[in-house]
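In response to reviewer comment 3 from the previous cycle, which asked for concrete evidence that the modeling workflow produces usable outputs, we include below a single protein chain processed end to end. The sequence was submitted unchanged, and the resulting C-alpha cells are shown without manual editing.
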Amino acid sequence: MNKYKNTKTIHRGIKFDSKAEAEYYDLAVWQAQAEGWELKLQERFELLPKFELEGKKYRKIEYIPDFTFYKNGKLVKVVDVKGMQTKDFKIKAKLFCHKYQVPLILAKKYRNTFKEESF
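The workflow returned the following C-alpha cells.
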C-alpha cells in the first residue's frame, strides 16, 4: 500500500498500481474490442526532454497514463484511473493535453462502476 492507500494488484497476469485500475482494465479491453481500437497500458509520453543549463543536468519529464487507445495508429483516447488528483498530476495532464492534443479522461470508481469525466 502506498501513501494514497492504493494496493498493487495482479489481474489477468498484469500488475496494476491499484485495485481500481485493475478493475478498469476489463472495461478498457471491452471498449477497445467494441471500437476496434488497440489498447496500451502505462505508455510513456515525453513532456519535456532532458537538458543541461550552466553545467546542471535536468531529467526529462514524462506522463504515464494508465490506458491509451489507438485507432489506425492514431491516439484517440487516454484514460487515467484516479482517486485523487495531485498538483504534479494536474500540471502533467495539462502539458500532455496541450502537446498531444488528445483529451484526457479521468475514471473514478463509483460503487460498482466507473464514472468518466474529461480532465
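The longest strand covers residues 74-81. We consider this sufficient to address the reviewer's concern, and the full set will be provided in the supplementary archive.
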